[in-house]
Amino acid sequence: MMCGIRASDCQWLIFQFAMLLLLYSIHFEKVTSSNLPQSPIESPLNPQPVLPLLAPSPLTPFTNISMPNLSGNCPLNFSNAKTALTTTAIDCWGSLAPYLANSICCPQLDATIKILIAQSSFSSGKLSLNKTHSKNCLSDITQLLEAEGSNHQLLEICSIHPSNLSDSSCPFVHLADIENTINIPTIIESCEKIDPVIECRDKICQSAITDAAVKIASRKIGSRLSGDDVAMVEDCKKIVLRWVASKFDSSYANKILRGISSCKINKVCPLVFPDMKNISNECGNKIRSQNTCCDAMEKYMTYLQNQSFITNLQALNCAHSLAENLQKLNVSNDIYNICHIKLKDFSLQVGSQGSGCLFPSLPFDVTYEQSTGIDFRCDLNDNVEAPWPSSFTYSPSPINIPALPKATSDQSGLRSTLLLSTLLLLSFFTW
């Protein structure tokens, strides 16, 4: 946004415009929320199911669109992966990127980098870059993504370093060496028709990639691998994944890479749990006051909700981890049930009524349209109870990963056009 006046006056105009958008969003929520289904139980931790939020088109002028300043010293052909780069920029859009990082943004960025290196191997014959090229190419990638609206701190958010583009400790990176070592037909057959649900259950493609990585690492060592060689195998897995990406067009390669990453993502809880002493004091042993206990729990959940959007399966893992830690602090009562804690309460809250937005466990991308802005779908917007380990044995069968936890109603994910007012508007002043 250009202002041909003093900076202070420009900031005031931006602030006034932001406030107008905020008033618009509040009015819009009042109009739309009356048509949404009501939650059967009302409580601060169990709000009405109002779902997700979009950055409307008036926000477009705020985005930091500019011409990329490329180094001129990167051998990657960016034009061959334009779709992947655009998808990444939208998945990592501006101030939303930190909240989309774990489930959408960073997996897509990682896939794009692998695809770019894979395609460069057609001319270079190598599935890695040297240190100098890695640094220059990473700078160029971020410049291209920022030019399309991505967050300017994307590398920090996703912990991407030049070493992610190099060979690290894997002993072989040349195509000829790789293809003389691995079982090409087996890997192609295992990965060419990947289904995220089946893959996470049976690990067909992942097992083929691991076997290939072990063969490559063992070829240098000349003997069986030891525990000290685990890091080398992991680095070789990255090389094999790049090789797999080189065997398919960028769109399908992206599907394979995102499908594999979703298996890993959904197995863990990405949230950081702060000290739980206040909950244990109020909810431990015999609860003296249910209101005081639930108030402590609500404050704690509010902290968790400010961290990130998470998938429904991640929420299951988070619910189990939190309950397990609380049980170690003598919280034996099912406070999820007592305080009406739902799975959606572990994810970022959206809309004026603070309804949690859980992402699907299957890979998906954020979308952008000129008329609507940033858009994404929230899954499981109905009231799915958070399971307490004492009454629920947490042992998710591989057949259910990724899959949906059973909802308490048939209500499917909803979409709405609510403004992400506080998160989006106020963050523009830091750009």
TrEMBL record:
Transcription found in the keyword field: no
Domain SPARK: 71-219
KW Signal (keyword) present: yes
Domain of life from the UniProt record: Eukaryota
InterPro entries referenced in this protein's UniProt entry, alphabetically: At1g61900-like, At1g61900_C, SPARK
Signal peptide region: 1-33
All copies of domain At1g61900-like C-terminal, residue ranges: 267-340
Residue ranges that the Swiss-Prot or TrEMBL entry lists as coiled coil: none
Pfam families: At1g61900 (PF26584), SPARK (PF19160)
Full protein name: SPARK domain-containing protein
